[in-house]
Amino acid sequence: MQLTQRAKHVDRHPMTWIERLYFWNILKGMLITLRHLFKRKATINFPEQKRSFSSVFRGLHVLNRDEEGRERCTACGLCAVACPAEAITMEAAERLPGEEQLYREEKYAAKYEINMLRCIFCGLCEEACPKDAIYLSQTFAPSNYSRKGFIYKKDDMLIPNPLTEPETYKKALGERPAKMIGNQ
Amino acid sequence: MAKVFIDDIEYEVPDGKNMLEVCLSLGFDLTYFCWHPALHSIGACRQCGVINYKDENDKRGRITMACMLPASNGTRISIEAKAAHDFRAGNIESLMLNHPHDCPVCDEGGECHLQDMTLMSGHNYRRYRFKKRTHTNQYLGPFLNHEMNRCIQCYRCVRFYKDYAGGKDLDVFAAHDDIYFGRSEDGVLENEFSGNLVEVCPTGVFTDKTLKQHYTRKWDLTSAPSVCHGCSLGCNILASQRYGTIRRILTRYNGDVNGYFLCDRGRFGYEYTNSKKRIIKALKRVSGTYQPIENGNAFEEVKALMGEGKKVIGIGSPRASLESNFLLKELVGENNFYGGISNTEGNLIKQVIDILKKGKVKTPSLAEAKGYDAVFIVGEDVTNTAPMLALSLRQAAKNKPNEEAFAIRIPLWNDVAIREIVQERTGPFFIATVHHTKLDEISSGSFYGHPDNIARLGHAVAQKINNNLPSVPDADRESASLSSSIAEALLAAKKPLIVSGTSLFSKNVIEAAANVAYALKEQGKDVGLIYTVPEANSVGMTLLSENFVDDAIARVEKERADVLLILENDLYQRIGKKDSEAILKRCNQVVAFENLENETTNSCDYLFPAGTFAESTGTIVNNEGRAQRFYQVHIPRNEVRSSWKWLDILRQDLQTAEAKDFDAIVDELIQKNPELQKIKETAPTADFRIGTQKIPRSPHRFSGRTSMIANINVSEPKPPVDNDSPMSFTMEGYHGIQPSPDTAFYWSPAWNSVQAINKYQIEVGGPLHDGNPGKRLFEPDENRQAKYFNDIPSSFHPSNDELLVLPLYHIYGSEELTALSHAVKERIPQAYIALNENEARRKGLNAEGGKVEFYYQDKKWELSLKIDNSLPDGIAGLPKGLNETSGIGYPFRTKINS
Ligand code: SF4
Ligand code: SF4
Ligand code: SF4
Ligand code: SF4
Ligand code: FES
Q1: Which domains are assigned to chain A?
Q2: Residue B872 falls within a domain, yes or no?
């Protein structure tokens, strides 16, 4: 019984004498290689050259700031509870008087960690966040020498301050339409 | 039984209920705010609207509040009718007009009754687009956070605080859509039960300020059913942790004990478990300082010390579990084990136990105490020594006046009507104490005197109830008339309740209270007799102890001991400096199993890190003789563990030593102490499973499992296994209704708040599905002849130059461990010495706050003067257990100087 149209039958016919000649098959292989020399390249010169991503590509997480540079995250825990990989963990702290410039809400994440080894980049955290505080950027996870290096801390994810470092902020923002990250 | 119809289906329901209770008990998801099973109905929030039909022909019906509708025969309602549905959704919508949109920021989020009810009502889109009214929040002290904007005006807070708990400083202000619930000005909420507002308030107006310091959502907490160690009542608690520190305490419902509530000492006094002063590894003292020592070596060295022929003694603890005390006793041998309290205290507790066991009068539980209609307190400042009992007694005081309402057929649940009739009146309530206590505000007669005079008053009351008893010699006229009116009131009551305890260290007081109860029993009264004892497991430890610390001192004085083992006991606190030093000096090596550094641990040779209630599993026995199981919340990432585990390893062959599991210890314990047989039944054994499943400590939404400890260990070790209970430390396990002693959190689909407890009860507000946890070890023998106590003390005569110093208790401060918690610390009073004005003047003191000097055990103490005119002449009061007064044994006599 055939389950799909794409099944390939194994060809078990005895080889002809030409086929039995070693050079014939070698030649066939070389021809394929040769053909590829004239085709378009499948690889790019990463990192000098970068691929363009779809606008909904989900890469590394960014913890967002608002237009005044205040951290948006209020440590509500909704991203963590939505996360199917259970990869997010955080600890909340109370904003103290005088810290209003730092944190948008009266509670903030003192600690915020994502285990990137576990994350499946599903984007549910971004979807769950009521404060537009977390979104998946267009950077994908870089390599690292140790497993520990994949435990991303808050500092690894916090976006640069748009007021003091507009350039790096812009870069971190990537090409995502600003409205998707709630700053407009 | 009454027949009611809900959406055209007939149900049989018990009489005397309202339709809301009935619907909830039947499992319907009907929305409500203002009704609370302990506070009953006032019909204020309009959220429980249903359609009520006259009869089966009535097709239109009318909207009625289910909580105000009696569930009488033939009542017909519809919950599902569209009009009812729309009404409830509309009502929520209007409640939400001014409610901020801040669930993510709100501490209540995820366990909020308002969130649950909003979803349940079907209101899900906010049409209101205008400015909301905002309020200023108040500072309410170290326990509670106030966020008034979240209020939905259900009135539960003031009804609990004022009507139920007798608070004075929380009220409702202003009018129409600008109603404000708070204090008249910023300041500490004074009531001892204010913490219950966290659970009573259906929104995030009142939230736990201590939780805020280390905030964690309900779904992220790992919790264990536990028992409060704050006093002898043994209220049931849920203790929760995350990242290895305890985050908060919530009420664990036990219909026989604390019901829906806790006192603030119990709720906010947990932070000592996270203290920096915790002993977290085995330590050995090497030339004066403690050095960490490897467990195995510690065992071997201590074992070597205790070898053949060595004189080893052990001191138990009234705050350690039965199992730990038992194993210490096993380790050192029966004759070398001493209960960790003074002989005076030990003998008092023994006497209390004796009365519980052999007396013929019932000792009601904390919940049953609410059902008595006349109260006589003999020598106990209940609010400060056993706080939740004070809350029960406040309810008991309402029973007599409530009868007036019942007489005109107003049911108990109709709280508005009852309040209207009763107003502020209270039933017969008499108090005899050393000084003015908080319950005096509801008393019908108070007496202040020396413990002996309190006892004399008790004897006089007993004599007036039973004329065959010897009369009290030389009774003065005043107390004679008071005793007559007390006797009269107790005799007129249906269910009189006598409350006494050990706090005054007076045998006479305990005996007098028993006499009153016995006399009433002989008159055929359904009388209750409650004694409070000093600590969480005072009764349990005393059941295992023949001798106490004074005996140990006498023994080492005679003959030095080689090794002294101290179990979770700061001797300096319990028996004072002089005695502690006496014993510590006469023992060559001192080994302590302790939670926190304290004065005693300063002079030990080996220290083993013992678990507090948070890291231990065990059984304790409360003042009523109820054995209750508490479970460890987590296995900490250090060496802390239940003391019994250390002790068990120490008594084994070290080559093969591994702590036995809990059930094996319990079996051994009851085999050697058959009278404790029932502790085995207090909770299921560790091999208990529901189907094949364990019982989870975390809810199924628990988050961060692959990242929580990734910063410590990326490779995600297997979660710890609990061999001592049928519970897992994770979310794995059975998520239905768990056995009542092993319920770690309350949750049911659509019910995320604490009100999910409705689903765990057979009938809302009643017992839990498989019975309330805990087993009473002794029951009174009704058929016994009362054996009266005949020692009537003579009246106290103040001496001219010396004062008698008695302990005064403080809910915050008088308990050793809770006093170390940050929030509680803020509420501990300044140390003082209290005298009445006369006495102060006679001593040449006049200004409150002035320095007073006195001597205790040859040491000079200096405290500031507090004038308390309720104190009798010749008596001074010292706050018990504060830092400045710790280690004082009461009562004592002293001279004072200014
Ligand atoms: S992208 Fe998905 S898996 Fe990764 S942290 Fe967010 S919710 Fe979790
Ligand atoms: S990132 Fe968003 S969802 Fe996650 S805790 Fe912060 S505010 Fe909440
Ligand atoms: S503060 Fe809470 S309990 Fe009080 S009325 Fe408002 S919502 Fe109800
Ligand atoms: S009354 Fe006692 S047992 Fe109950 S919560 Fe308070 S301190 Fe704990
Ligand atoms: S619960 Fe019935 S009116 Fe509030």
Answers
A1: 61-181 (3.30.70.3270)
A2: yes
